[in-house]
Design goal:
Blueprint lengths: L2 H10 L7 E2 L2 E2 L6 E5 L6 E6 L3 H17 L6 H17 L1 H12 L3 H21 L6 E2 L7 E9 L2 E5 L5 H14 L3 E5 L6 H12 L7 E3 L4 H8 L6 E5 L2 H13 L5 E4 L5 E4 L8 H13 L11 E5 L3 H13 L19 H16 L3 E4 L17 E4 L6 H4 L6 E7 L2 H8 L7 E5 L3 H10 L4 E5 L21 E2 L4 H6 L2 E9 L2
Parallel strand pairs: 7-8, 7-10, 8-9, 10-11, 12-13, 12-17, 13-16, 15-16, 17-18
Antiparallel strand pairs: 1-2, 3-4, 5-6, 6-20, 11-19, 14-15
Helix pairs in contact: 2-8, 3-5, 3-7, 4-5, 4-7, 5-6, 10-11
């Protein structure tokens, strides 16, 4: 790392780590939390997490702002403030990107691009405010009028993971605030700083105090928040284990609706007919999708199912494409693949690889101990495992790292059985030039998001208007698009008997 980058990063690391409550940073009284820089393994940031005291204060501030201020804003007023908020995020792009790079080892180039996506979510939902019809009048008899309104839920508790700190924050904060709610956001304990800066930017842009609050901390902080009697909706993205804990905790405290996007074990299914697109070209796309963000993506298609006649050629091409990817320092502009986010995650991913080796699974590409990087960092290069049994833990549990599993299948029936042979239901990709086959697979796959690929041509996706709902152990509730905003609204029926 050169000295100029060191100086910039040291300045960014001084961002206040205290909770942001009622429009200002406030003292915290919870546990001390040490965050390690994944690129070096050294402690890079220490802060005091929030106890129940700070959670109470944040929820109280959100409730006050909801009851007395935010609910009184016109749709146009909310829209103008959220647009100013998005502008403020973009104006602080460098600082926000560097914070995520420091906290989780995200390459600066990727982190900078994600700032624009995060701001885009805020803008999209600002624009959506006057696009959603907030009331309907069903047919009724003469003398009776019923209006079915969409109302804000109230105070939203949003809990986000560490893999895309700023994007996940804005994906929840954007629709929550646009719908007229106020929000208490709890970022991951290892990546709190971009969320804290984001909240300050929101206040500086004009959002009233208490509309957006951030309470950094550990699992105790999260438990205090989700069980709070004055929280009206919990929205969570993270592991299935934590999602189950949240459901249990809410059920044992105060009943409230939830949106849960949890883990995944998504398949990438390659039928032999797709080979006309080019084996190497398909392999490059597979590797790109599986290893995006070092494989630390809930929808990463890391289970690659390949039709038997194509298996050997495709396996070689996947290994060749993955071998081209070299881990590097997050601060190097040329780096596209950084370290894993933490020592815990590094050990977890390595344990899966070691278990596979011990069980006799063949390692086609071993990413452990990559060359050319800081030995103290949490670096793990792309790893490819061959013919992984579908019942093994490797194929059943989310690894959340740069590990690609290759498995052959004979025909459509076996491909579907293998694809659906997990408890998850988040995403899937099918490579085929047979439109009927693709539609049959999409209809029967257990996945909230299915991508059918029959061309390598680039095309613009739905972008911020994309929405989907997971199934199985991957959770429930719609996020994204206009339907995602409706998740933050409740339906109220008002009957008027007027004679």
């Amino acid at each position: 790392m050169n000295s100029s980058v060191d100086q910039k990063l040291s300045k960014v690391s001084e961002v206040d780590g205290r909770p942001f409550i009622a429009g200002a940073f406030a003292p915290a009284s919870g546990a001390q939390i040490h965050c390690h820089n994944p690129a070096t393994g050294q402690v890079g940031f220490t802060y005091t997490g929030c106890s129940g005291t700070e959670v109470d204060a944040a929820v109280a501030a959100a409730r006050k702002a909801q009851d007395e201020v935010w609910s009184e804003f016109s749709p146009g007023g909310r829209k103008r403030l959220l647009m100013a908020f998005a502008d403020a995020i973009m104006a602080s792009s460098d600082a926000l990107a560097r914070l995520d790079s420091l906290d989780i080892g995200k390459p600066l180039g990727a982190a900078t691009g994600e700032v624009a996506i995060a701001a885009g979510f805020i803008r999209y939902y600002a624009e959506a405010i006057d696009k959603i019809v907030m009331g309907e009048v069903p047919a009724s008899g003469v003398g009776m009028t019923e209006v079915q309104h969409l109302r804000p839920r109230g105070v939203v508790a949003a809990i986000i993971p560490w893999n895309f700190p700023l994007i996940n924050a804005c994906l929840k904060v954007g629709p929550a605030l646009a719908a007229g709610n106020t929000c208490v956001l709890k970022p991951s304990d290892i990546s709190p700083r971009s969320a804290l800066l984001m909240a300050k930017l929101a206040t500086d842009a004009g959002l009233p105090a208490g509309v957006l609050n951030v309470v950094p901390g550990d699992a105790d902080t999260g438990s205090a928040l989700i069980g709070h009697s004055d929280v009206n909706l919990v929205t969570f993205t993270g592991s299935t284990a934590t999602g189950k804990h949240i459901m249990q905790h809410v059920g044992n405290t105060w009943i409230k609706p939830m949106l849960l996007e949890c883990g995944g074990k998504s398949p990438e299914i390659v039928f032999e007919g797709a080979s006309v697109l080019g084996v190497e070209a398909i392999a490059a796309k597979i590797v790109e999708g599986a290893l995006w963000n070092q494989g630390q993506v809930c929808v990463a298609r890391t289970r690659v199912l390949i039709q038997q006649s194509l298996y050997e050629d495709m396996a070689q091409a996947v290994v060749a494409a993955a071998a081209e990817i070299k881990p590097g320092s997050p601060t190097d502009p040329a780096t596209r693949f950084g370290p894993l986010a933490s020592a815990v995650q590094y050990r977890r991913v390595c344990s899966f690889i070691e278990e596979g080796v011990a069980s006799g699974v063949r390692v086609l590409l071993d990413g452990r101990e990559p060359a050319g990087v800081d030995a103290g960092g949490f670096y793990l290069g792309p790893t490819v495992l061959d013919q992984v049994p579908s019942e093994s833990r490797l194929a059943q549990e989310e690894i959340f790292g740069p590990v690609i599993l290759l498995t052959p299948f004979a025909d459509e029936t076996e491909a579907l059985a293998l694809a659906n042979n997990t408890s998850y239901g988040l995403a899937a990709t099918v490579w085929t030039t047979d439109a009927s086959l693709g539609q049959r697979m999409a209809r029967r796959l257990k996945a909230g998001k299915v991508r059918l690929v029959s061309s390598l041509a680039m095309a613009e996706p739905a972008g911020f208007n994309h929405s989907a709902e997971p199934c199985g152990q991957s959770g429930f509730g719609v996020e994204g698009g206009l339907e995602g905003m409706r998740s933050y609204l409740r339906r109220q029926s008002v009957e008027h008997l007027h004679g």
